[in-house]
Amino acid sequence: MHSISALVSVLAVVATANAQTPPGFSPSATAELGLSFGNSTISPGEQIGINVPASAPIISTSSPLNGEYLFALVDPDAESPQNPNISQYLHFLQPGLTFPSSSSAPATLYPATLNSAPIVPYTQPAPPSFSTAHRYIGLLFSQSSNFSVPANFKQYNATYRMFFNITTFAAEAGLGAPVLANYFLVSNQTMTANATTNATTTATGTPIATFTGEAASIRVARLGTMAAVVGAFAALLV
Prior knowledge:
Blueprint: H1 2-18, E1 34-37, E2 40-41, E3 46-48, E4 58-61, E5 65-75, E6 89-99, E7 110-111, E8 113-114, E9 134-143, H2 166-173, E10 180-186, H3 213-236
Parallel strand pairs: 3-10
Antiparallel strand pairs: 1-2, 1-4, 4-7, 5-6, 5-9, 6-8, 9-10
Helix pairs in contact: 1-3
């Protein structure tokens, strides 16, 4: 009985560790969506500098996909994680993506082909200087052939992006759960996710970056999850 309980714990924490969305965010996905700005590929949970390119990220998958897809990029932390009074802020809503098998890219990368105009064009992340790091969550949904923008969301465009709700949008549009996801953090504060003078050091004296704010909570959550995995497996051996 003890082993069964430990196994259940392992499965639960592994599911959390495999999530490609921030802890506690819904909807979630366990398979990673490729996001990159130029030659810089985004790893889930990575913090990048404030100077995010003005051009939309390259969206890709690790294998070709059939059918069409819709991509959404949302910020659940606007204006700030402590006061998300205009959340969610919609940074990009792009339908009509396809991921064909023929590609000039490496065989392990299948960049999206955009077959229609965006519903809401991309705008780059620019969190205010008074805020800690914002999370920017990219979600890829399977898009049906009769997809249309739900009536309650027709007001969203290049100039109106506040108070979006990706869960309600997906439900009313009949999109189902996201199939792939990724997220990154951006801060306009110099103290967030940077090495500091009192950073922890390794045995060789090499500084380890000290994380604060939102980046800290996500980093701790990931480390805690991995510790829980190890602990649960150890319990199976008792």
